[in-house]
Every structure is written in C-alpha cells, then in structure tokens.
Amino acid sequence: MKVATAEEIQELDRRAIEEIGIPGVVLMENAGLHVVRAMRDHFPDLDKQRVLIVCGKGNNGGDGLVVARHLFNQGIDEVRVTLLAEKEQLKGDAKINFDIVTKMNIPIIEITSNEQIPAFRNLSAQADILVDAILGTGLKDAVRGLYKNVIESMNKARRPIISVDIPSGLSADSGVVYGSCIKADITVTFAIPKRGVLLYPAAEYVGELEIVDIGIPQQLIEHSDIKVHLVQAATVKRTFRDRPANTHKGTYGHVLTIAGSPGKAGAALMAGRSALRAGSGLVTLAVPENLRIPLEIPTLEVMTAALPETKEGTISLDAYDAIMALLEDKRVLALGPGLSTHPSTVELVHRLIQSVEVPMVIDADGINAVAQNPGVLLKAKAPVVLTPHPGEMARLVPNIAIQTNRIEVAQETARRYNVFLALKGARTVIASPDGNVFINPTGNPGMATAGAGDVLTGIIAGLISQNIIPVEAAKTGVYLHGLAGDLVAAEKGYYGLIAGDILEMIPYAIKRIQEE
Ligand SMILES: NC(=O)C1=CN([C@@H]2O[C@H](COP(=O)(O)OP(=O)(O)OC[C@H]3O[C@@H](n4cnc5c(N)ncnc54)[C@H](O)[C@@H]3O)[C@@H](O)[C@H]2O)[C@@H](O)CC1
Ligand SMILES: [K+]
C-alpha cells in the first residue's frame, strides 16, 4: 500500500475530481460516512452518546459537517457542531455541506475568538465523544492562537477523540510534531495512509488507525509516482509459499556468516542461528580462531569455521583467502555482528565488499567499517543490504539529522551507494536503490535490546539463501523480525524481552504470516 505526503494525496484528490470526474462532494460524503461507520464500530451505544464535532474552515471541517448531518439523520440528537471560523470563510465542498446542514436546522456554534474558549471547554466537558475535524492535510504550520487553544482543550477534556483523516496539528509529511496536536484515540484516514500517521513521534498521536476507501480509483493510486509504501502482511505472505515435498537442505541454500570477536561471540551465534530459524538449509559461522572451540558446543545446528586472527583476537585481513574459499558453495554472506573495528578487520571488510559475488548482508561493525570509506560500496560486485540503526546510519552519512528525516535519508543513501538499506528503529524503513521505500508496521519498544540486530541480520541472510531477492528479503525480514518481537511481547511484555526470545519466536511468526 502506498503512503502519501500532503502534496501527493492532494494530487490524487485533484485527479479523481478533475480527470475521473468524481465530484469532490462525493469524496467528502464517503469520507464522512466512513467516520460515522467507524464511530458505530467503536461505540456500540453511539445512539445514547453526546457527540461534539469540531470543524475547521477547510475540507477537513467539511468532512466533519457530513458526520454531523448523518448522526442527526440517524436520530442522535445530542450532537453539537462547532465551527472555528465565520461561516463566510467557508468555500467549495465545505460550504456546500454547511448550507445543507443549515437547511436541516442543525445548529452550528461559531467559535472565533479566545474569549469563547471557556464556553468551548464546557461544550467538551458535556460531550461523551469528540470528533476532530479541525485540520487535515491542509495544515501549513504549527497551530497557534485559537486553534491551539481548542486543540489543547480537547486533549484536556479526557474524552475519546476520533480524528478525521489525521489528528489536527500533525503534519502529513513527516513524523515530526511541530506544536500542539490532537491526541486521538481513533484516526480514520482517507484512501491511503499519510507519512505522518505512520512515523514516530507523530504516530503516537494517532491511536488506532483505520484506512478507508473513499472512492479514489485504485488505478490512480497504483500508477501515481508515490515511492513510499507500507509493508503489509499480504505481500510478506507471498515469500513463505508451501514447500514442495521433494526438497533437501541444499534447496534452501547455505549462508556464510562472518562475525564475532572476543566478548562478542554471542552476536555471531545469534546471527547464525536466526538464519536457520528463517528457513535457510545450512549455515556456516566463520569466527576468529579463538572463538571456534567455545562456539562449537552452543552452535548445535550451525557449522563453524575458524579464521586467521589478529593479535587482539579479531578476524584479520589474512582470512581473506579462506573466506573466498568458504564462499564457493554459499548463496549469501552475512557480515558484521560483533566483528570489532580493528584496522585489519576493517580492511578485510573493504576487500570482501569489492570481491564477493553473492549478495551480502552487512550489519553492525561491518557498517562501521563501511563508514570509514562508504565509496567502497560502489565497487561491490553483488547486491548489498545494510541494516544500520540510527547511530550507525549517522556514521555512514554524517552531519544529517537522521531521525527527523528517516525516509529521505534512507532513500538518498540507498540511491547514492546503490544498496538496499534497512534503517532500524520504531517503524524501520527499507530503501531500495530504485528510490522505493517501505515502512514496516511491526515491532515494539521491547525490541530495543542487545542482539536484536544480530537476529535481523541472520533472518535477512536466511531469506536470501532461499533465493528471495534482496529487496523482498529485507522487507520480509524486517516484518518477520518485528512480528516475532510482537509475539514475544504479547506473552512476556516489553521489559524482560531479550534477543534470544525473538530468535526462538521466528518459526511461530512465520506460521502466523502463512495463516494470515
Ligand atoms: N476534495 C478533497 O480534496 C477531499 C478532501 N478531504 C478532506 O479535506 C482535507 C484537506 O482539506 P483542505 O485542503 O481544505 O485543508 P484542511 O481542511 O486541512 O485545512 C485547511 C485550512 O486550514 C487553514 N490552516 C492551515 N494551517 C493552519 C494552521 N496551522 N492554523 C490554522 N489554520 C490553518 C488553511 O488556511 C485552510 O483554510 C483532508 O485532510 C480531508 O479530511 C476529504 O473530504 C476527501 C476529499
Ligand atoms: K483532523
């Protein structure tokens, strides 16, 4: 599913109206009706509730007037409608709906000055449900003055708030919240989600998100040049087809994982095991010589190989030939967990990137090595998937604010270095060199725990070993990893969740996806 900016959704609305000929009032009617339907779903005793609908002067307010009209029509007479403007300021479809509402003798209370705020607070206090139809995708700036006071009064009223399209005050374009913003319990967003309702910290204001079809033709959406998408269960499911009976471990590929240094054997182990849990047929874990024997016992199903090491016990540049030989029958290389940034190890990473001919998943110290000379990525012979967390991303592209520009930064970096990239964090974004970006909906704050990244590296490598193309492996891997974390959290909560739990939950998460 595509994810829009304000400008992109406005363009879709415009084309639906002008090119396809669907009148704007029809779209507005559908929008309002869906909000009413969502209210009925969430509040079974809606008929007995007192509803306050707060309308702004744009089309978002117009949607609110449609809601008012239908609630009245359905016999709910405890409905109050406020308009944060003088009626003369309304135009277009909002004006049409204002006129209809007026002719239906539904009273509208104009709130146009701060002196009316106490009266507005009373109205909020007397209501059971608040409908926020103040501002939608037309928001231009941080809200101030009357709008700010109204928004804050609504938040303080401690009543359930249902936001029309987006919580008022939230920018459709990014996860940044500039000023006051409605803290919604439910948001009914139209046609496709806007970036702001998915990205944090703004997403915190959205509550439960419903995406509803208001009649914008699918072909317009599909053929638009919107490059940002939401990863959905249905697409992920296609990765996990039923396995034919007549297959063997070789069918599902062999992963080579190069990882570990003294003190970081666990990272290597988890990256190796999670590739198997994601369905890879075989995994060989290549570690510095000193870790080989200690890892032999806990690795169980994972095979190990010892590599020449530096004086400090990290994998040394001398390991290059051995690694190239090990790669002969492998489908993918996972490189980086717990490697260290020893200069010799860093040099090895650079050399491998330039010579390996199977796809590479590079994480953690692998990324830190790349960050010392990102241009090396342009010399890669095979596809590269990078999985940085924001700190690693900042090393890769210094002097850019990462967290406030997650989509743009991931998109630009993937293009510039011709790599696939999963920028981790709440709502991981996956970017492909062709400019497409995917936002992942799964995962939870319990996953901010040591080793969770190593598990993701293993999952993505495990998927690539099954001949899944890198972009799909990155999308599916991130989704699966987050879902496994969500399943653990459902049982154990966020606090004590550890990476090993995520790893062991992978099979159940795959099963859940298949059964979806
Ligand atoms: N035909 C369409 O374009 C459709 C639009 N729809 C609704 O219309 C919304 C977009 O409508 P509009 O483009 O009219 O925009 P909005 O209704 O979001 O608001 C625009 C109005 O608010 C004012 N404004 C902007 N920023 C402000 C701020 N910080 N403080 C105070 N006032 C501010 C603007 O000057 C303008 O008058 C969507 O979110 C959706 O709810 C739906 O009805 C579906 C069809
Ligand atoms: K709104």
UniProtKB/TrEMBL annotation:
Its cofactor is Mg(2+); K(+). In the C-terminal section; belongs to the NnrD/CARKD family. InterPro entries: Carbohydrate_kinase_pred_CS, CARKD, Nnr, Ribokinase-like, YjeF_N_dom, YjeF_N_dom_sf. Transmembrane segments: none annotated. Keywords: ATP-binding, Isomerase, Kinase, Lyase, Metal-binding, Multifunctional enzyme, NAD, NADP, Nucleotide-binding, Potassium, Transferase. The keyword ATP-binding applies. This is Bifunctional NAD(P)H-hydrate repair enzyme. The gene is nnrD. Catalyzes the dehydration of the S-form of NAD(P)HX at the expense of ADP, which is converted to AMP. Together with NAD(P)HX epimerase, which catalyzes the epimerization of the S- and R-forms, the enzyme allows the repair of both epimers of NAD(P)HX, a damaged form of NAD(P)H that is a result of enzymatic or heat-dependent hydration. Catalyzes the epimerization of the S- and R-forms of NAD(P)HX, a damaged form of NAD(P)H that is a result of enzymatic or heat-dependent hydration. This is a prerequisite for the S-specific NAD(P)H-hydrate dehydratase to allow the repair of both epimers of NAD(P)HX. Residues 9-222 form the YjeF N-terminal domain. (6S)-NADPHX binds at residues 59-63, 136-142, 147, 165, 267, 338, 389, 454. Binds 1 potassium ion per subunit. The keyword Heme does not apply.
